Amino acid sequence: MESALSKSVQNFCAEEMRENMTTKRAVALVVLLVVSACGGSAETNAPVTTTSVAPTTTQAPATTTTTTTTTQAPATTTTTTTVASTTTAAPATVMAATPSATFSQEVNGHLVETAVICGVDGLEVEYRLDGQPIDPETAGLRFTQGAQSFHRVVGAEDGDGPDYLFDGGWWVEDRTDGVSCEPYEGPNWEDFTDDSILVTEIIWADTDLRDILCPQLLPVPIGVGDCVVGFDYVRRATVDGHRLEIGFDCAVAGVGEAWWVVDGVMVANRYYHPPESSYEDYEEWVVAPMRDLYGDTVYDYVAYAHWLDGEAFVFDIGRVKIDLNLEAFIERDNCVLLDWFTDPQTTTTQAPTTAAPTETTMATGSKYLDSYTLIDEEFGTMVTVTVDGSIRTIGSNALPDHETGSFPNEGNPNTIAEQEASYEFATEPIYTGAATGAGITGVAVNGVKFEPGTAETVTCATGETFRVEALQDIYNLGFDFNNAHVQPTGEYHYHGVSQLLVEAYEHGDDLVHVGFAADGFLMYYSKSGTYESGYELATADRTGTDCVLSLPPGGAVNIGGTSPDGTYTSDWVYNEGDGGLDSCNGITIGDEYLYVITDDYPYVGRCLNGEVSADTGGPGGGPGTGGPGGGPGGPPDLTVAAEALGVTVAELQAALGPPPPDIAGAAATLGVDVEVLRELIERP
Q1: From the CB of residue 122, how many other CB atoms can be counted at a distance below 10 Å?
Q2: Does residue 317 contact residue 235 with C-beta atoms inside 8 Å?
Q3: Angle at which helices 663-670 and 649-656 cross, to 10°
Q4: pTM score, two decimals?
Q5: pLDDT tens-digit map of 244-303
Q6: What one-character-per-residue DSSP string does 285-325 give?
Q7: First-to-final CA distance of the chain
Q8: Strand partners, 104
Q9: For residue range 410-427, what is the model confidence (pLDDT) as tens digits?
Q10: What is the spatial distance between Cα 392 and Cα 388, in angstroms, rounded to a whole number?
Q11: Which residues contact 307 (CB under 8 A, 6 or more apart)?
């Protein structure tokens, strides 16, 4: 949870809990650490246990007289009474106690009041139940930049029957010349479900992303291009000619990660880390204590204010009701959006279309769209594909049905071995345009996986990490004539096109159906090379000093000042419109979106534009993370981990050794706990 709840956790982490906080609430805040880690979005909230928000004292203007008007009462209000009064500026030593506005309602026979006071110390709030001030379980939000602050006056308290919901609306406070407070009416939001946002730029310095969903928007030379990101919920509004968009999903306990977008630019986000506890731990350490404190439900409020060129933009998701039952947590879609329209709209993002060449036919010539079995006694291949409704299940021993090179060899010490691989892909894929990075981007018709990225890196003491490309001429990774080699597990896999694979499954047409992508769309190879990727070599020289290669026996690598030549993934940048294929090597021909394996970079696409299930299978589980420039399937960037441990990146990499990393040995070498080290290096 974020806003009032998770920010209470942040206040706790910063040792800023008020002295009058009860022991019960203190325990609950410790528990909430499991749900939402310290840190997160840039929101600043009124303390959970206070009745007012009091910024630094500033004298009221000597001659100012303020008459305020009321704002609309919350939707759950049965009766609303507003008191509008006139307040004359008091001397600096006297607080103006008369409410600027009071919002009243009767709930279950009790009078619920929210009093907003604009005094010499700024905007303050008092929550009253039957005339007595109380500290509500959750309280409001405050966002400040310079002399301007936006306050969302809101609170919630567990009731005897219905809960008591306090609501004083939005207020803007200005300290440019004394103190003034006025009601703020935000924009009219349009609500959508299952929609996408076109993002053209990300302000990386102001974001904290758990997963890089748009690798093509990373700073050049890593990636260039737009990105379409899909969300369960999207809100849109227009303010002074600017288009504001909010995209978010529901999570186990309220709203998960949210993106705040202005005119296509993602200016900030709300960080979310999914819980990693077992259901039993959830019940004991999270759900039960929260239920003891809050009852069956708790209320959050999610919003954000961003200042751009001196203009403030307020993003408002609204009040969120969270069910404090274990069953609701397990469902992982546990948020009721109380301030949304009753009938949100539903839209669908369409894939970009390209006219089909007249000489091209596609899946009509393929024999492998329905269930089939492949058995090749010569090569030992065994593949069973079952199509059942919307799911295509692929079972494979991962032995190709064609000749391979010799393994082990000088660049690859591994021997091909039979596997027990299983995958589940959609037969009716959904295009999102979200360009999600993937390690295993698909599986060939013969049951051999496509995994174009590598685990090999060059890491520099100055923080740069360069992912070694598979198909390059500098480092010998032991590839055979099929652009394939063998992993330590013995699994043979493709990094590019195999001409033997193409020859085995071609049917006379230019486009040859050679595989199934992990999002369910089909993978093809163009014999004529009609379709070209939009990637080209970057022009800026590489940077980095004291760089070390992860391949045994390691050793120094000269990086700084060298020119991109395709050796590393980050040598390539995507230029939209060049070549005809999108950043994932996909294209729409007629009414079919598909991926094309090319003879040039990226060979096999490094990302997917369709909806991908949480676990697409394989011997090692679901697909890895990464994308163009992001290092698909490889180890994470060690810069943050090294800084946390107080060592250099080179020292940490030397301790871990070549892939797969020796975490236990590295922990012993560095003198740290194994689990601490594991968490640091596995963190995105």
Answers
A1: 24
A2: yes
A3: 130
A4: 0.44
A5: 999 998 888 888 889 999 999 999 988 777 666 666 776 777 778 877 777 788 888 999
A6: IIIHHHHHHHTTEEEEEEEEEEEETTEEEEEEEEEEEEE-S
A7: 20
A8: 81, 113
A9: 999 999 999 999 999 999
A10: 6
A11: 145, 146, 148, 313
